[in-house]
């Protein structure tokens, strides 16, 4: 077992320190070493205990005289305390005053303690396709949440009277003085279980709990431009809170299904346009799918694999701004894999007739052309 430090040393005082100096030193050190002020310091709690123990002994004249005479070996009374009893209401009491709910009490610094708890949040998922995500849509969702019973208004009984202990507040406040000022703790009233009313006849609908589980349908507006995985918050749409507290919120996670023709890249869309080698060499007109329907695009003669054509303003709407992104059409040139003898003969003749000049002017490598597709 570790040896205890001298109480005067703990508080940084001489043995001639006055009562006021002891009080002032403890007030300053207690604030500096309070665990809540040092969340990443695992030793703060032990230092705070040591400070409180030192103050508890030295702040009382009788226990201080005993400590000055015997030190830590002071004879204990039948109750195991310093002579004259506990001058501060017990070490546990002051420690609870600082640590609040860790020992079942209220908060020391906020002056209010723990009030009725807010309701828990609820969460659901909704799935939309790419075009619904682009232009927005209304979607009906069903959410199962715990609500206050409509029959008894969340009281838990059809007949009740105002609690005489808390006066209908559902909580009781305790005020006491300490060296650090007035301490106020708030706790749920035990006489009415925090309801504020004492039940005379329990409600059959909720069996006295004041809560029921309900499935609620509501229409949700999906905003245009929303992205996969985004959350929409509906304030107050979650589970009911404790009596006197607000409900939680409802979070809707939006899942955007993949589109078979258009791939999303932020505000832009990408479409893979497949053309055969003849069309790429001679040029052709092709129809490209867009969010608004088909759009005709010209494939110029000699178009190379990976060439990207940009359709301005045909992408996704900007969720928090004006305008839309672009649609990028990436040309994928298909090379024939099954040739007849006649086709092979024609290609061989074409190859024999072609020189390096046939393939010049390609406009960069395949990877250069792809570089601008993805941001």
What does this structure look like?
Mean pLDDT is 81; it is low at 76-113. The protein is elongated, with a radius of gyration of 38 Å. The longest helix has 15 residues, at 19-33. The chain is 22% helix and 29% strand. Helix 2 runs antiparallel to helix 3. It has 375 residues and is α+β, with helices and mostly antiparallel strands. Strand 10 (263-265) and strand 11 form a beta hairpin. It has helices at 7-11, 19-33, 44-58, 61-70, 91-99, 130-135, 277-282, 341-353, 366-370, and strands at residues 122-128, 137-148, 157-162, 171-178, 181-188, 197-202, 211-222, 231-234, 250-256, 263-265, 268-276, 284-290, 293-299, 308-311, 327-334. It has three domains: 7-103, DnaJ domain (Helix Hairpins); 122-256, HSP40/DNAj peptide-binding domain; 263-370, HSP40/DNAj peptide-binding domain (Sandwich), CATH 2.60.260.20. The protein is built from nine helices and 15 strands. It has a four-stranded mixed β-sheet with strand order 10-11-15-14. Strands 1-9-8 form a three-stranded mixed β-sheet. A two-stranded antiparallel ribbon has the order 2-7. The relative contact order is 0.10.
The top-level CATH class of the largest domain is: Mainly Beta
Number of domains: 3
Output the strand order for the largest sheet. 10-11-15-14
Helix content: 10-25%
Largest sheet: 4 strands, mixed
Q: Would you identify the CATH architecture of the largest domain?
A: Sandwich
């Amino acid at each position: 077992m570790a040896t205890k430090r001298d109480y005067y040393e703990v508080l940084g005082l001489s043995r001639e320190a006055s009562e006021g100096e002891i009080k002032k030193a403890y007030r300053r050190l207690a604030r500096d070493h309070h665990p809540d002020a040092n969340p990443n310091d695992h030793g703060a709690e032990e230092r705070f205990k040591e400070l409180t123990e030192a103050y508890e002994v030295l702040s009382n004249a009788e226990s201080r005289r005993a400590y000055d005479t015997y030190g830590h070996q002071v004879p204990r009374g039948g109750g195991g305390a310093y002579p004259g009893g506990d001058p501060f209401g017990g070490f546990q009491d002051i420690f609870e005053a600082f640590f609040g709910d860790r020992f079942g009490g209220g908060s020391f610094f906020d002056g209010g303690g723990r009030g009725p708890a807010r309701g828990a949040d609820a969460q659901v998922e909704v799935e939309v396709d790419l075009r619904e995500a682009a232009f927005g849509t209304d979607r009906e969702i069903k959410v199962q949440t715990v609500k206050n019973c409509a029959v008894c208004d969340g009281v838990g009984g059809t007949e009740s009277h105002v609690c005489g202990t808390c006066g209908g507040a559902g909580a009781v406040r305790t005020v006491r003085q300490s060296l650090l000022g007035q301490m106020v703790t708030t706790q749920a009233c035990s006489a009415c279980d925090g309801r504020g009313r004492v039940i005379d006849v329990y409600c059959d609908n909720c069996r006295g709990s004041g809560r029921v589980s309900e499935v609620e349908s509501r229409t949700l507006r999906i905003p245009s431009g929303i992205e996969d995985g985004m959350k929409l918050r509906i304030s107050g749409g979650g589970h009911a809170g404790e009596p006197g507290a607000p409900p939680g919120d409802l979070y809707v996670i939006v899942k955007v299904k993949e589109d078979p023709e258009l791939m999303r890249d932020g505000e832009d869309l990408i479409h893979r346009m497949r053309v055969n080698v003849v069309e790429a060499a001679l040029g052709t007109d092709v129809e490209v799918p867009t969010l608004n329907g088909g759009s005709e695009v010209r494939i110029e003669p000699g178009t190379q694999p990976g060439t990207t054509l940009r359709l301005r303003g045909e992408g996704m709407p900007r969720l928090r701004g004006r305008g839309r992104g672009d649609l990028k059409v990436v040309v994928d040139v298909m090379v024939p894999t099954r040739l007849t003898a006649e086709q092979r003969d024609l290609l061989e003749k074409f190859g024999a007739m072609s020189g390096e000049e046939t393939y010049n002017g390609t406009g960069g490598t395949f990877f250069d052309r792809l570089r601008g597709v993805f941001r």
